[in-house]
Amino acid sequence: LVQLVESGGGSVEPGGSLKLSCVGSGYTWSWYYIGWFRQAPGKEREAVATIYSGFGYTWYADSVKGRFTVSEDDRARLSYLQMSGLKPEDSGMYYCATTGPVTGYLGDRNAPKYYSYWGQGTQVTVSS
């Protein structure tokens, strides 16, 4: 059973930082993507960052470039989303997800439709 569990969310003031973690279990794929998504109330889920596991290929939404960094320890099935310079518009539920096994690099994979397995989410609130 594939499982993803996020942690690290919380409440911070604008300009603050948080580091989200995602631990995966139940899979031994060699090639796959990890995606970080967020969803604010009343809005669609949007991709924030993705990483092609084991190769370090990353993609970032324009709204977070230069402020967020996605990384991983693929052997430990861990992914991280370091967030700095947080803004109120960054608030929302943050999810990590994985595509499942892929045949190779398939581009940015920056849409929810590409992801088969999801964590339960961790809440991020940025306010003063």
N- and C-termini, Cα separation = 40 Å
Structural class: mainly beta
Overall pLDDT: 96
Apparent shape: globular
Features:
globular, 128 residues, mainly beta, seven-stranded mixed β-sheet
Give an account of the 3D structure:
The protein has 128 residues and is an all-beta fold. Helix content is 0%, strand content 47%. The protein is built from no helices and 11 strands. Strands 2, 4, 5, 6, 9, 10 and 11 form a 7-stranded mixed sheet that branches. The protein has a 4-stranded antiparallel sheet with strand order 1-3-8-7, with no helix packed on it. A hairpin with a 4-residue loop joins strand 5 and strand 6. The N and C termini lie far apart (40 Å).
What's the short version?
This protein is mainly β and 128 residues long. It has strands at residues 3-7, 10-12, 18-25, 33-39, 46-52, 57-60, 68-73, 78-83, 92-98, 117-118, 122-126.
Fold topology:
Elements: E1 3-7, E2 10-12, E3 18-25, E4 33-39, E5 46-52, E6 57-60, E7 68-73, E8 78-83, E9 92-98, E10 117-118, E11 122-126
